[in-house]
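A favour between colleagues. Tell me how you read the following sequence-structure pair.

===
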Amino acid sequence: MKFASEFRDPALAKGLLSAIAGQVDKIGASMDQPILIMEICGGHTHSIFRYGLDKLIHPAVSFVHGPGCPVCVLPMARVDEAVALAERPEVIFCTFGDALRVPGHRKSLMQARAAGADVRIVYSPLDALELARCAPTREVVFFGLGFETTTPSTALSVQQAAREGLTNFSIFCNHITVPEPIKVLLDDTDMRLDGFIGPGHVSMVIGVHPYDFIARDYAKPIVVAGFEPTDLLQAALMVLTQIAEGRAEVENQYSRVVPEHGNPVSLAAMADVYERRPSFEWRGLGEIDASGLRLRDRYRAFDAEEKFAVGYGAGAKPRVVPEAEGCACGAVMTGRIKPTACPQFGKGCTPDMPLGALMVSSEGACAAYWHYGGARPVPAG
C-alpha cells in the first residue's frame, strides 16, 4: 500500500468486518458475554471513535479503553509541581501543547501563563535546548512527558546539553513505561480482559518483545496495531482468531513501522540517560513499581527535581492530591467505566472547563467520546 486512503478502503473494511463476525461465531460470544479487547493506546481510542469502529464491529466485541495516554495518567500533584516550576521568575517552562490545559489542584499551566508565568509551547525538547542557548540568564525547564514514544528525544536533548555544558537547561522528567501498568490491570481480579491491541508508536521504539509476558504469563493475545481503520480492524481480527484457535501470542500487525526489536539508536540513548524509579504514581492506578524514569546520576545536573527540590528530588516528599470531587478519570482510564458513566461528563467537565485530563488531552477517552461519540448531553429545555 502507498497511500493513506488505501487503509480506509470501504471494501477492505467490509471484508474484515465479515471475517470478524465469522471468528465471533466460532468463539460463541454474545452481547451478554462480549469479548473485551483493550486498546492500550489513547491514539487508538480516538481512531476507533473517529471512524465509528465501535459501532461497525460485531456487537459481541467491545473495545475497552486503556491507560495509554501519558498526559491523562499524570497525577494532579505532578501538574501542581509543573505549575510551581513555571511560576518561578527565573524559569522559562517549556511544554508540549496537550499538557497546557490539564488541570492541577490550583490551576493549569495555561492559567499560570495567563497570570504571568513564562510558559512556552514547543514541538521538541530541542526547541527548549535552543531557548537555553539564547537565554543564558534564564533557567529553561522542559516538561519531559510521555511513554517510550517521546522518551528518546528527551534523552538525546540531555546528551546534547551535557556535551555543550548548558547549565541552565533541565528536565522535569515524567516519562513512564507501558508494560508495567498492563501487568497491574492483569493482576486485578475485578478486571476481565480477553485480549489487547498494543500501542503502535511505543512499539516503534521498544519492539514487540516487552509484551511477551502478556501471552506467556497471562495467556492473553496481544496484537500491535497501526492507527488507520483497517489497521485496527485487522488487529481485532487477529486477536479474535487467536482466541478462536486457543492461542495467546504477541503478533505485529504494524510491521510496516514496528521492528521486532525496536529502534536500537533510541534504546541506546534511553539506556544511557535514564534509570528506573523505584515507583511512580499513576492517576487511577496509584503507585506502580519501576514504571517511571529518572535521570541517571551522571546527568543529575539536568534534573529539575534535584535542581529545584520538587517532586521526588533532593529529598523532597511527593505530595498526594485527591481528584476533583465526582471526577472518575481513574475508573475511565482503567476501563472500568465508559466516559459517559462519569457523573461529571458533559456537565461539570467539558473541553472548555475540564475537571480531568481525559477531557482535554488529544488522546483522552473523554475527549474521544465528546468529539466523535455523539455523547454530548442534550441541553435542558
